[in-house]
Amino acid sequence: IYDAGSVDQSINSARLALNVANFEVNSASQKIALQALKAWINVKKSREVYQIYSEGMNLVEPLLGQIKDISSSGITEKNSLLLAKKEFSKLQINLEKARNANDLAIKNFMSIYSTNENISVGSMGNLDLDFNQITDEQMLFSLNEYKALEYSILSVRSKINSLEKTKKPNIAFRAGVVAPAEKTLDDGTANAGFIVNYVYNDGGETDSKIKSLKSSLESFENDILDLNRSKILEFEVLKKKYKISQKEIANYEELVDLSEDLVKTSKAQLVSGRSKIQDVLDAEVQLAVNKIDLINSSANAEEALIELYLLLGGLDDFKQWNFVPPR
Hints:
The protein is mainly alpha-helical. It has helices spanning 6-72, 78-113, 136-141, 144-165, 184-187, 205-272, 277-311; strands spanning 170-178, 189-197.
């Protein structure tokens, strides 16, 4: 009949603990989704870089051959051949590194998505996110880790209240009937009564449990403070990383356009004799470098953005994606 609310508090604690488990599971699944998306970005980046180095090799080889022919005829200095061979050697090494990076990215992707099929990874589409209007407090409240800790604190507090209420007397009503098959009314008996229970001394067991729970409560509260500090810092770092990457993208897009114009100009001047083959080679190399820098900056921006998505409510927007490669 009466237990000072001890059972109610215990049930409430269990319900809150269930919420904690749900938030922890969701947090773990979000982190897996983050790794999957990063693998997606990495495959796309490594393939594009490898393609640029492959195309660069196809462009440089004939230019190197022309420089060798001119050098052997004594028309030009050996220095041009030396510089060309140096650039070609660097390109060969970078091509091999790009090939290895691409192979590793694909293996990692296949491992995450549990497939051995050929994969085709395209653009991630529009990932615009207006994070400038979001406060640190809003970001924290959207975190699964924060919610799990908050509910853990509430669960422990309910458990402490439940234990503290067991120190008070509890009252129970009990009734019973004995009804024989024959002469039920004459020989049957019934009894009813109230039972009052009060534990005067349990040897400190309840106090020990409460002390342990209060220690856990303090630990959870400290965890929230640590989480606040780390996530606010992470939020600022990711915002700056994204903004810097966006500036780099704009810069490298301009440099790629300028480099393409320089390649066209140097080739045209080569025909008229106003430039050397070495100038064309240098222009092609610089164009490739700028394109690779653009690819890396774009990948950095995408990574920063999906990590911001994770901080600001999770990656549920990406659940509609079909990650399974076509068969």
